[in-house]
Amino acid sequence: MHFHRCAIRLDDGSVVATDxxxxxxxxxxxxxxxxxxxxxxxxxxxxxxxxxxxxxxxxGPFLVRRNTSAxxxxxxxxxxxxxxxx
Length: 86
Hints:
The chain is mainly β.
């Protein structure tokens, strides 16, 4: 797994969240996947399409698979890519 800081946007370009931690795997494939760590104030909906903007300049579309409680301060969000991170 590779760790990055990222921003999350909707298809229309509006910002959902910034300075979020993401752990990614298989980023050289179109069907990459990972886990985003979020606070409870950021709402991502399972099945919704978003765009990940990584700290190294790459970006790509993803879908939220599920949300899992990770304690009082945050939760883990499982994601999978819908195209290359370029």
